[in-house]
């Protein structure tokens, strides 16, 4: 089983069809597609492919710095946020780490690569798959070298309590625990400020951002890491391989954060479709659904005799099976929120699966 969503080709081969025939709800990509501003820029600047990108990515870092009101020296762009997870772990060389489960698989893989001892903080249905004050106690007792925290969480789509998040930031600062906060999906939350404004006050804080999901450019791959630890950012830049970001991903980062019409349209689409799909899924008795705030929903199938992913695949719909997330079972799934038409097809297919199951 793939560690990630979006493996449409493998699933299409399983049922003997073409990948284009499958509606992919397993990868959380904006259904509005790549911004027209970027498409136009790529066509107009195709000649960029004929030159090496600036190995320092100066224009890209300056554009990201303008967007977040910080210095270019606070930022390291990368080939998707995943490259930067490995970069920050390689830089920190933690001996011990705390991971919240369920959580994104690459945190664990990056930590294992440096032979780090990993402690799990298990979130469960009983606590709503949310951390609580107990996490602060664990941090004080364990004193790990680093903590990974996703806001919102993947796969649940849930945001931790604001006051608790601030308490975690202060606790990690007090005990010099490197806090790596993954904000890969926070752009989908128009009212969430995130932690970037606090970087100057907390030098042990590292914030991961992704442009892949919100701007629908998974094939280009672009993310970035921000920190008030300027020496650390500089060292990570020196340790990396050259030219990990291609010319068109660089171009994307230079222009798309200024595309306010696209950003506004995305927030309007999500506000409407998130509410609609959540309500429709909640109305299906065989499902338990969590009210996430990102562009995907986390659910549990209450009919364990039905394997939901292969059942929906027969309807040419692919959803993310969450059985390989630590702490979850074969009955847990994640579905992206897509266009109104695709969301309707998902709901219809689910009703058919459960009526015949």
From TrEMBL:
**Domain Aminotransferase class I/classII large, chain residue ranges per copy:** 21-350
First-level EC class: lyase
- Pfam families named among the record's database cross-references: Aminotran_1_2
Which Enzyme Commission number(s) are on file for it?
Answer: 4.1.1.81
**Any GO molecular function:** threonine-phosphate decarboxylase activity
Pathway this chain belongs to: Cofactor biosynthesis; adenosylcobalamin biosynthesis
Cofactor needs: pyridoxal 5'-phosphate
Give the matching SUPFAM superfamilies.
Answer: PLP-dependent transferases (SSF53383)
Tell me the InterPro entries matching this sequence: Aminotransferase_I/II_large, CobD, NHTrfase_class1_PyrdxlP-BS, PyrdxlP-dep_Trfase, PyrdxlP-dep_Trfase_major, PyrdxlP-dep_Trfase_small
* Domain of life the protein comes from: Bacteria
Q: Which keywords does UniProt give here? A: Cobalamin biosynthesis, Lyase, Pyridoxal phosphate
Swiss-Prot/TrEMBL catalytic activity: O-phospho-L-threonine + H(+) = (R)-1-aminopropan-2-yl phosphate + CO2
PANTHER family the UniProt entry points to: HISTIDINOL-PHOSPHATE AMINOTRANSFERASE-RELATED, THREONINE-PHOSPHATE DECARBOXYLASE
Entry function: Decarboxylates L-threonine-O-3-phosphate to yield (R)-1-amino-2-propanol O-2-phosphate, the precursor for the linkage between the nucleotide loop and the corrin ring in cobalamin.
In terms of NCBIfam families, this protein maps to:
L_thr_O3P_dcar
Protein name, UniProt field: threonine-phosphate decarboxylase
Q: What is the lineage of its organism?
A: Bacteria, Pseudomonadati, Pseudomonadota, Gammaproteobacteria, Enterobacterales
């Amino acid at each position: 089983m793939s560690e990630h969503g979006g493996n449409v080709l493998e699933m299409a081969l399983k049922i003997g069809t073409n990948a284009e025939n499958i509606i992919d709800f397993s990868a959380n990509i904006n259904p509005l597609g790549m911004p027209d501003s970027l498409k136009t820029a790529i066509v107009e600047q195709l000649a960029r492919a004929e030159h090496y990108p600036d190995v320092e990515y100066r224009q890209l870092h300056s554009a990201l710095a303008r967007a977040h009101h910080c210095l270019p020296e606070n930022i390291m762009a990368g080939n998707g946020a995943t490259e930067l997870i490995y970069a920050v772990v390689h830089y920190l060389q933690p001996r011990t780490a705390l991971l919240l489960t369920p959580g994104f698989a690459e945190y664990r893989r990056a930590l294992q690569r440096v032979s780090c001892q990993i402690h799990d903080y298990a979130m469960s249905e009983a606590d709503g798959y949310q951390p609580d004050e107990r996490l602060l106690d664990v941090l004080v007792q364990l004193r790990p070298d680093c903590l990974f925290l996703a806001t919102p969480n993947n796969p649940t789509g849930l945001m931790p309590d604001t006051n608790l998040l601030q308490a975690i930031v202060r606790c990690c600062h007090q005990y010099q625990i490197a806090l790596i906060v993954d904000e890969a999906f926070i752009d989908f939350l128009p009212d969430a400020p995130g932690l970037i404004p606090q970087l100057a006050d907390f030098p042990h804080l590292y914030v991961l951002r992704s442009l892949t999901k919100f701007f629908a450019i998974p094939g280009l791959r672009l993310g970035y890491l921000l920190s008030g630890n300027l020496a650390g950012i500089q060292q990570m830049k020196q340790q990396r391989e050259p030219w990990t970001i291609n010319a068109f991903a660089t171009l994307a980062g230079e222009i798309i954060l200024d595309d306010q019409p696209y950003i506004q349209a995305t927030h309007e689409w999500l506000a409407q479709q998130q509410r609609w799909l959540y309500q429709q899924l909640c109305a299906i008795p065989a499902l338990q659904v969590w009210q996430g705030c990102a562009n995907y929903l986390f659910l549990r199938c209450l009919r364990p005799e039905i394997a939901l992913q292969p059942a929906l695949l027969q309807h040419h719909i692919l959803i993310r099976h969450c059985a390989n997330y630590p702490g979850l079972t074969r009955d847990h799934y994640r579905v992206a929120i897509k266009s109104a038409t695709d969301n309707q097809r998902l709901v219809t297919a689910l009703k058919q699966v459960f009526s015949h199951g």
